[in-house]
Amino acid sequence: MKNQLLILAILLSATGLSACKWVSSENNPFIQPEKYMNTNVFPTPEATAQAGLEALSLLITAENAASFGFDTPDQARTAALTSPAAVYEIGFEKLTSAQTGDRLEKLASPSSEQIFPLAISDTYRSAVRISGRTNEYHLAGVGEAGYAEMLEKAREQARIQFGDSVKVSPETATFYSVPGIGATFIGIRVQETLWLLPSRDTRLSRTEERLFLPADRLLPILAEEARRMAELIKGERRLR
Description:
By secondary structure, the protein is of the alpha+beta class. Helix content is 35%, strand content 28%. The chain contains 7 helices and 11 strands. The strands form 2 sheets. Strands 3, 4, 5, 6, 7, 8, 9, 10 and 11 form a 9-stranded mixed beta sheet that branches. A two-stranded antiparallel sheet has the order 1-2. A hairpin with a 2-residue loop joins strand 5 and strand 6. Helix 1 packs across helix 2 (45-59). The two termini are 29 Å apart.
């Protein structure tokens, strides 16, 4: 991971964000961009995402294009940034202490991250992930095809479950991260109900098919997973 970020730092300088000095940060060891007044942050989410798109065009090769969500490097260079999708996070401790009657939406907190999908025509292929708040934004990831896959799957599944009237886009969808149990969901609202669809890599013991589930029906499943994980952690600590 650190090597990838180092490569990205070098590539950022090649996009016109010239190197001034290294920034020592565990998550963002990027070069300070000269055209942003020698600071290690970008002033807007859009500027940050654009830097990520420019870096991706240099980082991508014929060998790694598929891992970034594209068929070829030339195809990647035709991708356009779309509107961002918000990210919410559900803390591990909140899940382990969740009670009957709690609402998942009340347990979720806004994250500092935003996801900018990359689209070709009307198809999402990859994404740029940024982090930060109010005039201080960092590039957190480029070529993150998993978010695009979730959007496309959500589009397809929404048509199956809710019909053509429910449209899925970055403006109507929200990503929910549950880092304590390694789960990620994409959420859409249908009338007054929040529905969540798990990512391809999310594995929950009581859900077999990849379907949209009402958030409040999903909460007990997530809470059960979190408590099971907490017991495993306690067991490991006792063995030390």
